[in-house]
Amino acid sequence: MAQNDMKNSSKRNDKLIYSIFNNRCIICWKPADEINEIVLRSRTKNAFDLKNCVTLCGFHHWEYHHNGVTPQKVKNMQNRRKEFLYLIGKDEYV
Question: How many CB atoms lie within 10 A of CB 45?
Fold first, then answer.
């Protein structure tokens, strides 16, 4: 994928995001129900950048947002995203 394809756009490419993560929750590997922006839309202009998106099951999406998204939660999710992509052999999206 070209680097330009991964840059921010005003519209999220849900089909591509689910495909990148094999339709799996990056935490528990169950089928993904939702796409989550790691850094909240209200906190960044790059919310729809592919490097800011992950797929989660409903529970883990709720858990991420429960009691607020803290800097530590953001860091943990970014690290988990990288680990997951390496595990499934999609290093090009790290």
Answer: 10
Q: What pTM did the predictor assign?
A: 0.84
Per the domain annotation, does 78 fall within a domain? yes
Structure tokens at 22: 């094999």
**Residue 5's pLDDT band (boundaries 50, 70, 90)?**
very low
Report the distance separating Cα 38 and Cα 22, nearest Å.
18
Q: Which residues contact 94 (CB under 8 A, 6 or more apart)?
A: 81, 82, 85, 86
**Is the separation of the CB atoms in 2 and 10 below 8 Å?**
no
Which residues form the domain of 40? 3-88
Residue 51 forms part of a structural domain: yes
Task: Report the domain count for the chain.
Answer: 1
Both structure tokens of 65: 């947002």
